[in-house]
Specification:
CATH architecture of the largest domain: 6 Propeller
CATH superfamily of the largest domain: TolB, C-terminal domain
Number of strands: 51
Strand content: 25-35%
Strand order of the largest sheet: 35-34-36-41-38-39
Largest sheet: 6 strands, antiparallel
Number of helices: 25
Helix content: 25-40%
Distance between the termini: 78 Å
CATH topology of the largest domain: Neuraminidase
Shape: globular
Structural class: alpha+beta
Amino acid sequence: MSKTIALIFFGAFLQMAHAGLELKQGDRILLYGNSFIGRLQEHGLFEANLQLAHPGKQLEFRSLAWTGDEVGYRLRPERYVNHLKKLLDRWPAQVVLLGFGLNESFAGPAGLSAFRSDVEGYLREMRRRHPGATIVLLSPIATEDLGHPHYPDAGRRNEEIRSYVEAMRELAQLQEVHFVDLFGPSLDAYAEQEQPLTSNGIHLNDSGHELIARHLARELLGSGAYAGVDHGRAELVAKAVRRKAGHVATVVRPVNTVLYFGVRGRAHEYNAEIPRYHELIARSDARIHAMVQDGSVGFDPRPLTLPPLVTNARAELPSPEEMLRSFRVAEGYEVNLFASEQQFPELRNPEQIAFDARGRLWVVTMPSFPGTIPGDVPQDKVIILEDTDRDGRADKSTVFADHLTVPDGLAFHEDGVIVSHQPRLVFMKDSNGDGKADVKEEILRGIDVTDAHHGGMIAMGPMGHVMFCDGVFHRSQLETPHGVTRGVDATTYRLDLRRGTVEREYQTLTPNPWKITWDRWGNLFQMYGDGFVQDSHAVPWTPFGVYHPFRRAITVAYGKGSAACVISSPNFPEEYQQGMASAVLLRKCFVSLSRHEAEGAYYKASKRLDVLSSPSQLFRPVDIAFGFDGAMYVSDFCTRIIGHAQNSMRDPRWDPHTGRILRVTYKKKPVVRDWPRIEEATTAELLALLKHPQDLIRDHARRELRQTAGVVNALDGWLRKEKKDEAILEGLWILHDQGEVRQNLLEKLMGSPDHRIRAAATHLVRFQAAQLKSPLSLLRKMARDPHPRVRTEVMHVVSHLQQGDQAYAALLGQIDVSGDKSLQTILGDSSYGVSSGMGPEIPVLQKPEDSKLSHWLLKEEGKAERFFSFGSKAGSFGTMHTYVRSPAKRKAVLSIRHSYVKVFLNGIPVISSANWWSSDWNVQVELQEGINRVEARYVKGRGARGYAPVYLYDPLGTRVEGLVTPGAEGEILEMAAEHDRDHGVNDSVITISAVPNQLAFFPREFRLPAGRNVRISFRNPDLQIHNLVIVRPGAEEEVGLLADRMAQDPDAFEKAFVPDSENVLWASPLVNGKGQVDKEFTAPDQPGRYPFLCTFPGHWRVMKGVLVVE
């Protein structure tokens, strides 16, 4: 169907008679929402239509959209509200457009009530924030059915979205705000168009944006005004809008937020640079207004610039030759200069490096570091260095991509590369053979830019998954066809390009993840900024907001750095093959080699050799890669200073003109000068290369095979003849990318004599469980493997799979960890359950002082519980609780500024922080009608300070209407007693409930006098089956493990998963969802702390509490 017909088709959905919004001279239109709004502005046509319909009114459009936003869940960097307030003061709005609903709809029917409540509250907030403004609520678009085998069913998704759209329509009518339906028109347009209108079902492509932009413009303008728009001219104006939208997005979410106004905020840098963003926006607006008023004014594609803020003059630094002479090189090795800025001026501050299938070295450069000054032309690039005569020195350089913003990595994919171009991952390729990127397609957006050098480096693993990272201070929200994935602070993510999923791989208190590398058996290792290489398969998945401790599973710890690379080289000594090369770039700067082996649960480094070092602080080795020739290549960022936390962003000592690539070889073995052809190889030749002794060649052979037609049949034929376990593993990795499993071969590898192969096969179960027969049985078998590394993999796999099926968690109790502290640690890290440790955050512009909860009951270790008021003397580590009375069920924001605290509301964890890097929490919660219990547990940690007050206010930033808080000790004790009565705690009945969707009990603690006879009423409002078992002090783990082992017992359900043990004092039967059981109980005669737990398989490690007998 032609575009013209499509536009006529859209007209059928319009109410032709309406006159549209009234827009006055100088009106400002402010847009909020998820990435739909951001993309709409970036496309430019929507604003261009409205500007052309009102050419003399000098309208201003400003977008505050944020990828991944939901009405009730909007992650922002710490202290962002200070910046937001200034933006709102500068941009008072006369019209407000709100685009939400898509991300919320992934909650399905169960989330609809909360969504309605959130929208009602948000509309109140918008009215207060923008008094007198016209508010327009935009529905989400429909999901397009692309026939994708791994995307959610589009029909089911659209039914879910439709219910949210109807809720928005009803609320708009009730609240008397405008409403525009984009769902119905987009759904019908999908059916009529021959070509897709979205890139992934949820994000519009260029054609889709054009249709939606015209539809929305007509709805807002009215038929008459829209009819007068010159659509040919609109396409040109849209280019100017697109540029302006980029400047607006940059000031709304500037790179290096942490230095402008965040935790490390410096007012002088904010005041010097943020106004420059606004100047660029003003100049962009001026061009747009001129274009819509005067048809002769064209679009000037040249970037807008401002007078220089600072000038980094070229410093008198040691030349490359002088630096070479300064290096200390280990005996038997030598170093030469592969490339420098003298030969290639574009080689400036190189960062990540990688070799392509032709042996060319791709280099990400970042001379703008720590970020481009607003008003300067971005100078960051991706360049390709080529050694055409293979003499170990580059003789050709090509700029593949230019004018990038803080690029921090690349990964080869299909016939191009994926570049981390903050805040996006962008696929780029050269389609005409000139070596320059002429195709650029966005893959993902929403990666945070709060700190420019905390984004890490990206990498593609053996199964074709892309790994990328967040560092400390970051708050990412990533939209996918499967929903939103969020991350806070140091987090590593896995992007499955075939399936369109993003998942958090792990979260850790070790700051700033950087280079990711794999060994031959698929073990993933990652370098962290503090200089720690992490054995990442020994770091299980944990729920959102639950972090692994600092330095968990560390194999290398030589000093601060970003570079790590598994050694696979025909030139380097045999003893270091599959070892680890790493680099230190602060203080003592050097490159090291280490052996790397997993004799136990963890990989450990040994036999460190500092192969290259320099006394010069100019040497900054930031990345390492091994080439086809077997040499080790080192990317030297080459600057006098390296840390922008310690130094001003515009310190004149930054050296944006220098950059070197060093090449290290081992003199006792030859370098390779002739390597296999890969890009033009036949399928048979590529399959043979899967057995090549060099990992780099295997990696590129895999990449070529993944995009080879007929590869599944070719692999099957090859695997029928192949006997070597390593080769079979390579084949299974490629088959997985094609959506294929071969269970017979997987089970063969599980029986391999090599524990590394057995561990790799076990790891594959994580990704193939849905396609395998009896995956639980396979894992149960591997849980008995004699090698601890294989059992480590079982725990890693279970930690991920339990998210979808709690039956996997029962396997944790069947793994032998006795006598092995490392395995015991990993088991503990695997046992956090699946419930989020954090509630949904929203930014609130003000925190009312009268919302502070001042009076508490405090229990510190070794001391009796006592009344405590903020301002009085107290320690730093204890648990306190208080009560508030709400006249109705309602939303509120619970806020605290503290790095080491866990906060519970009515037994549900809403804040869980043990993080030196983050402390400002503003979480949306739901108060129940009546008495609510608030508990804060302050824990020990690096730099932990004293107790911090808790605030509870409404989402508008005012005290919750009608909320009653205790003002004295007597009042808090009265509310505590009332709370206990309301929850069935009295002389004769104790009521305990499962917390829905949380794997938790409420209350988590109750008290009884010794010998007291009571009736326990156990209620289960959850959807899962639970029981309640009280055990002797210290017997929690023993009973829990016995229960896990019952998972294999055919009579386990009849026994209610209650072990036959003298340590079990009392047990309920299994209680189905929405069920209840009452049973008599007599408290023990001996005072003490008696654990109670749910022994349904996999639950007991997190679903537990304590009975205190007094």
